[in-house]
Each structure stands twice: as structure tokens, then as C-alpha cells.
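Not sure how to ask, but would you mind making up any protein sequence you like and the C-alpha cells describing how it folds?
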Amino acid sequence: MDITLRTVLIIDAQLGSRIVRHLHPEFFRLLLTLLLLAVALRSALELLVPPDKPLSISVQEVRT
């Protein structure tokens, strides 16, 4: 598993470095902006929308 993971990471890193050379910095800024907006929207929804099943704690006696 370790060798497989290492190989995949090396190949991905090489492909990523080749792709990055052809893209403009503005594109990466746009991607980062979209990622941050998605995270912010998800956080806001989690704060504003009540959950389907709120947490409840129940105590049960164990009889032996």
C-alpha cells in the first residue's frame, strides 16, 4: 500500500506541475475564491437550517 500510494503521489505531482505551467494565476485565484465561497455557504447553511434529528440524550438502566 505504501509503495502504491507513493507512486500515485509522484505521478500526480508531475502531472500537476505540467498543468500549472499552462494556467494563469488568475485562474487559481478564481478557484480559491469559489472554494472559499462554497465553504462559507455550507457553514452558513449548517448554522441557519435546523437539523432533521436534533441530538437527544436518553438514560437507560442496565439490569443484570
